[in-house]
Each structure stands twice: as structure tokens, then as C-alpha cells.
Design a protein that fits this description.
Rossmann fold, eight-stranded mixed beta sheet, alpha/beta, 40% helix
Length: 431
């Protein structure tokens, strides 16, 4: 079975998938609306760091920003972002934009030949693919859903920065509106996914499974964050409590921390939005979101309390935060919670420096209006906050600790450091 494949969206999800598919299929097109992104990829540069230059140089896939390059394709995979808006409601503009573009492609393609199959990997709420997406494609193309084109859904499970759990090594859910289409998905994805495929009973089940995966993780982290709030009031270290509790065979190993990025802090709102549409008011999910959203302010206020109690409050208090990315060893700044810590501290008149040798300075400036500092700027600090424990930061920790003034504080958000390694002239606190 031959398939001519197009991947729409060449970001953290789409690019590795396109590279993998190009190893097994002769005709692969990778499309992105960002012409600068496409130009960089064609020059073998991936700013995400997920794909190496050699892979881009060697790939047979065609990377383009021209819709007409997809007209010969009959298998389309949509991997565009699905963020939330300022009101924390699903922002469907990227996925709906992709639907309209696909409608244009199908309209120009016309009827005849193999039935086009459109597979969505983007995280959506249950029911969106077959109702909203299908209807939009049909309206623009003038074609009939389920007759002139078919739909499928296979949620992405990319873990940025993870060199072990890659596209090929993560089991994948596939679903489609009929058995024939599901077989086509199986044929395509089985070439790349070595960990195996799970054939979901229908598209809605696969959509629900995706939002559940990240919602479950969000709630578990929220429980740990609430535990951290309680342990701080008691005066014991959360890390020690979790270490002791972890000796039980069925204890789940989650830890407190900042919850950001494009998945865990976003996907629960897709599930709750759908629940509210159906007249159900979700309680546990939204409660977990509120707890995780409160962590940046809690950390900033804790820093201020420590400074006040120690008598270190002065006119020019200096606090440095290590890390801006949403997680360790990635450049991705989407939904980072660090800017909220910065804003909260600045509201108290604190001078805040942010240092992240992994993140892109232009992106930080554009996304958050933050100027990332150089390591040389870190001096005479009252507090050093380890927010994101990039390996490059941990490897340089001895030097960085030396930039803190006597009696200053080390704030270890994720307990990445051993308190025994902290110089005796400094004070240590962890979430």
C-alpha cells in the first residue's frame, strides 16, 4: 500500500515524525506556515534541538510553506499546536486554520483517485475531530465528509528533551472513522513506531485518552504541590516525606514543581471545556489546576518571607533565577511559569535576573519581554533560585553558588540539589 504523506506543522511534534516517515515512504511533504522556520530547516537548522542537522541533511522529505506542494498527497497528518487563550479556554485557531488550508488543498485536488485521509495528532477535546474539524474541511472543500475524505486521530506523545522516549519508542494510539481508514493508519504508523500501536474503538475514545493522560499527571503533581505547601507550614522537607512514603510498593512517584509547557498545564482545560458544554462542572481537575497555577506566587512570596525574617531586605535586593524554559534541557519557553515568579518578585521592588544558557534570548524577549542575563551578571546575590535544572546549570552549580552573598538563600524548586552540598554560609530551602 503506497501513501503520499503530508505533515502539517513542523514543530516539536511534526518535524521528528516527518523525518521518521521519510525513512520509509518515498513521497513525504512537511508543511509549515512559518517561512522562516522552513528556510532554517532547509538549511539543516532546527532551533528546537529535537532533530540533528545530519538528519535534516539526509532526509528525502520536502519541507515547504507552499500549499500546492501537498496537492499530490492523499494522507495528511495535522500536528499544529492547540493552546489556550487568556481566559483559559481552548484556542482552536491553529487547528481550524489547518482545517481551512486542508479544505483548500482538497478543493484543488478534486475528486477521484485514492480517498484522502486526514489524521489529527493535535490535542483536542473529545468530539472535535469528527464534528468541528470535519465540518470545516467539508465547508471549504465542497466535499462530503466520510465519503470524499476520511478522518482519523492519533494523539502525539512527544516528550521534548527526552532522548530515550522518542517517536519510535513510544506506543501510539490510532483511531479512524472506519476500519479501512484505521488499516491505513496502521500501515503508515507501524513503519515508524517500533513500540507498537493501540487501535482505539473510535476517534472520540482516542481524543479522550489523550486529554486524560496529561490531566492525570497534572492532578498528581497538584497533590504533591499541595503537600509541599503543608510541609512548609509544618517545617519539614517535602523531599524527605516523599522519600519515606516511596518505600511503599504502590506509592506513585510524583514530585512538586512548576507546571508549564504546551501539554500538562493546557490539556486539562480542553477536557473541562467539553465537560462544561455538556452541563457538568468538573471539580477535581479545576482544583488541581488552581493549585498548580498558584505555585509561582507561593515561591516568590516564600522568598520574600525568608528575606524579611533574615533581615536581608534592603533597597537593592538581588535575586537570580536559573532557568526559563518550561522543563529541563529543552529550549521551549511555551507557558513557562518563571515569568510569573519574576513579576511577583518585581512587585516587591526586587531586582530579578534570569539566566538560562539553553533558552533563546530573542524568544525570551519576544515572548515575555525578558532580557536573559549572562553568567557574568550574576554577582552579590541575595537569593539564587534553581527553577529549571538544566544539566549545563547543574554542572556549573559550584560556580553559581559562589555568586551568592554570605547569608543568602538557595531556593531549590524541584529538590535537584543535595542540601549537604550547599556551602555552610548559605541557607537552603526547597519546595
Amino acid at each position: 500500500m503506497s501513501e503520499k504523506i503530508a505533515v502539517i506543522g513542523l514543530g516539536y511534534v511534526g518535524l521528528p515524525l516527518m523525518i521518521g516517515l521519510a525513512r520509509h515512504f518515498d513521497e513525504i511533504v512537511g508543511f509549515d506556515i512559518d517561512s522562516r522556520r522552513v528556510a532554517a530547516l532547509n538549511e539543516a537548522h532546527d532551533w528546537t534541538g529535537e532533530v540533528q542537522s545530519e538528519e535534516l541533511t539526509q532526509t528525502t522529505g520536502k519541507m515547504t510553506d507552499k500549499l500546492e506542494d501537498m496537492i499530490t498527497c492523499d494522507f495528511f497528518i495535522v500536528t499544529v499546536p492547540t493552546p489556550i487563550d487568556k481566559a483559559k479556554r481552548p484556542d482552536l485557531s491553529p487547528v481550524m486554520g489547518a482545517c481551512r488550508m486542508l479544505g483548500d488543498v482538497l478543493k484543488k485536488k478534486g475528486k477521484g483517485g485514492k480517498t484522502p485521509l486526514i489524521v489529527f495528532e493535535s490535542t483536542v477535546y473529545p468530539g472535535l475531530t469528527e464534528t468541528i474539524c470535519g465540518a470545516e474541511i467539508a465547508a471549504v472543500s465542497g466535499l462530503t465528509q466520510s465519503e470524499d475524505f476520511k478522518l482519523g486521530y492519533s494523539p502525539e506523545r512527544i516528550n521534548p528533551g527526552d532522548k530515550v522516549h522518542r517517536v519510535e519508542t513510544i506506543k501510539k494510539i490510532i483511531s479512524a472513522e472506519d476500519e479501512e481508514s484505521l488499516d491505513r493508519l496502521d500501515h503508515v504508523y507501524s513503519k515508524v513506531i517500533k513500540a507498537g500501536l493501540h487501535r482505539a474503538t473510535n476517534i472520540c475514545v482516542a481524543e479522550a485518552a489523550k486529554v486524560l493522560e496529561n490531566t492525570q499527571r497534572d492532578i498528581n503533581i497538584a497533590l504533591m504541590n499541595e503537600l509541599a505547601f503543608i510541609c512548609d507550614r509544618i517545617g519539614i522537607r517535602t523531599h524527605d516525606v516523599l522519600q519515606a512514603a516511596g518505600t511503599k510498593w504502590n506509592f506513585l512517584p510524583f514530585t512538586p514543581g512548576l507546571v508549564g509547557g504546551h501539554c500538562i498545564g493546557v490539556d486539562p482545560y480542553y477536557l473541562t471545556a467539553r465537560a462544561e458544554e455538556l452541563g457538568y462542572n468538573p471539580q477535581v481537575i479545576l482544583s488541581g489546576r488552581r493549585i498548580n497555577d498558584s505555585v509561582p506566587a507561593f515561591i516568590a512570596q516564600k522568598i520574600m518571607k525568608l528575606l524579611v525574617k533574615s533581615g536581608r531586605i534592603k533597597k537593592d535586593v538581588r535575586v537570580a533565577i536559573l532557568g526559563l524554559a518550561f522543563k529541563e534541557d529543552v529550549r521551549d519557553l511555551r507557558n513557562s511559569r518563571v515569568p510569573e515568579i519574576v513579576s511577583e518578585l518585581e512587585s516587591f521592588g526586587v531586582k530579578v535576573l534570569v539566566y538560562d544558557p539553553v533558552a533563546d534570548k530573542d524568544h525570551a524577549r519576544h515572548e515575555y519581554d525578558l532580557e536573559l542575563c549572562e553568567k557574568e551578571d550574576l554577582a552579590d546575590l541575595d537569593t539564587l533560585v534553581l527553577a529549571v535544572s538544566h544539566k549545563v546549570i547543574l554542572d556549573d552549580m559550584e560556580t553559581l553558588l559562589g555568586r551568592v552573598a554570605d547569608g543568602g538563600f538557595i531556593i531549590d524548586v524541584k529538590s535537584a540539589l543535595d542540601p549537604k552540598d550547599i556551602p555552610k554560609n548559605l541557607n537552603y530551602w526547597s519546595l
